[in-house]
Design a protein that fits this description.
The protein is α/β, with parallel strands linked by helices and 437 residues long. It contains 11 helices and 20 strands. The strands form 5 sheets. It has a 10-stranded mixed beta sheet, sandwiched between helices. Strands 14, 16, 17 and 18 form a 4-stranded mixed beta sheet that branches. It has a two-stranded antiparallel sheet with strand order 3-4. Helix 3 runs parallel beside helix 5. The longest helix is centred in the middle third of the chain and has 23 residues. The two termini are 25 Å apart. Bound molecules: inosinic acid. The site of inosinic acid (IMP) has 21 residues, from helix 4 and strand 10. Inosinic acid binds next to helix 4 and strand 10.
């Protein structure tokens, strides 16, 4: 075994700011490529380079680094419209990625009908007050079709029978949409025909890109001693098998899936980098125990932290750092190194952290099956640090309040064999403090 794979995962509900950390890791020169292994265009990884900002939904977070190869693995669901738009956008920023972007022929193809089905399913669930608040990118229906073995793969678009297969699937979807209309009153949004045309045009563009056996290619790179960074979409708490089901996404966002989603033996996985924010955010449905119940305070966090979705523009709910949930996420992921982001963002005189959950009178020992069963949180309060730490790059310049906060987190995770390696204090790559080596 010559090269290795390091994995970057979110340890909260997504939106931890992984893009910035991935960008910094890639800039270290330790990796020749970056690979996405799960999810689809529901993700939104923001990277900044000087005055250039790029939000990658499908293109892995190395778009702004010329020497980095970009891999989209087997476990991803690829929306050709989103992908080709991103490539175009990157070109506008001066980065032509088409020669260094490799798309797995086994990755699954999101059809123009998948977002419609996503909307129909959400409409149906909303009747029972159970909508998930998805990104409406067709992710759930695409993974459902994948598991039911009827979706198209990216490789299929190059085959002679593509049109026939596509017709068969869209007919199947049309029948489902009719059912949602007749039984549940789902109205098809306007412009469905244009969406189809846009999709077919994007498929034509996709055909010109490098579609191949990405799994074999990554293994080849590893064999010659190159290292790859694997980036997870979403966060551990949204993992389909381990999150607060059904308020989750439809793929596994935990790092173990880097092996399956890329088709590389797990023995290649080395460091598992976990990413957290100094507070927590969540979008979509489901309970959020650590949520800040004071609307004014929550809004101030949203504004200061730019907490609105990079994919949907929705305002994110904001909560205190939830150490109980974090311990669960770390235990599931095997994270050994943590990036603590947005430590400069602090509103108010005091901050809280959630250290435990109660359900009725019972203090929970294990992470609950359903977060809606949490009736109360156990919290600790500490002094806040206002705006004092924005842009700080040296440990010695950190305000005593923030230092106390970070040391508290470290203490609370002491038994888990993890360390905080970097603390983010602003949007720019250099707004980072090296913490524990
Ligand atoms: P889906 O992945 O679009 O099906 O959405 C399922 C749930 O995951 C919803 O609550 C979404 O808000 C959430 N979700 C999906 N992707 C992201 C993300 O990248 N960041 C944060 N939440 C996400």
């Amino acid at each position: 075994m010559k090269g290795f794979i390091d994995v970057v995962v979110g340890l909260q509900w997504g939106d931890e700011g992984k893009g910035k950390n991935i960008d910094a890791l890639l800039a270290s020169g330790d990796y020749s490529g970056v690979a996405r292994f799960n999810g689809g265009a529901n993700a939104g990884h923001t990277i900044k380079l000087g005055d250039k900002t790029f939000v990658g939904h499908l293109v892995p977070s190395g778009g702004l680094q010329e020497n980095i190869e970009l891999f989209i693995g087997n476990g991803v669901v690829v929306d050709p419209v989103s992908l080709t738009k991103e490539i175009f956008e990157l070109k506008g920023l001066g980065f032509d990625v088409s020669e260094r972007l490799y798309i797995s022929n086994r990755a699954k193809l999101v059809s123009y009908t998948h977002p419609l089905l996503d909307a129909a399913e959400e409409h149906y669930k909303s009747k029972g007050g159970k909508s998930v608040g998805t990104t409406l990118r067709g992710i759930g229906p695409a993974y459902a079709d994948s598991r039911a073995r009827r979706i198209l793969t990216v490789g299929d678009i190059l085959a002679a029978d593509f049109e026939e297969k596509e017709k068969e699937l869209s007919q199947y979807h049309a029948n489902l949409l009719l059912m949602y209309k007749d039984k549940y009153g789902f109205e098809m949004p306007a412009g469905a025909e244009e969406k189809k045309k846009e999709w077919l045009d994007a498929v034509e563009k996709l055909k010109k890109l490098k579609i191949l056996d990405v799994s074999a290619l990554i293994r080849e790179r590893l064999q010659i001693g190159k290292n790859i960074l694997a980036e997870a979409a979403q966060g551990a708490m949204l993992d389909v098998d381990h999150g607060d089901y059904p308020n989750v996404t439809s793929s596994n966002s935990l790092p173990a899936n880097a092996s399956l989603g890329l088709g590389v033996p797990h023995t290649y996985l080395r460091n598992i980098y976990g990413v957290i924010k100094a507070y927590t955010t969540k979008v979509g449905g489901g309970a959020f125990p650590s949520r800040i119940r004071d609307e004014v305070l929550e809004k101030a966090f949203q504004d200061a932290g730019g907490e609105y979705g990079s994919t949907t523009g929705r305002r994110r709910m904001v909560g205190w750092l939830d150490i109980f949930a974090l311990r669960y996420a770390i235990a599931l992921s095997g994270v050994n190194k943590i990036f603590l982001n947005k430590a400069d963002i602090c509103i108010g005189e005091k901050v809280k952290v959630v250290t435990g959950y109660k359900s009725g009178n019972k203090v929970l020992k294990e992470f609950p099956l359903h977060l809606k069963d949490v009736t109360e949180t156990i919290t600790e309060e500490m002094p806040g640090w206002g705006e004092k730490n924005y842009g700080v790059t040296e440990k010695s310049k950190v305000s005593p309040e923030l230092l106390k906060y970070i040391n508290y987190i470290i203490d609370m995770l002491a038994d888990l064999d993890v360390k905080i390696i970097a603390v983010g204090t602003g949007r720019e790559r250099e707004h980072t403090i090296a913490w524990d080596k």
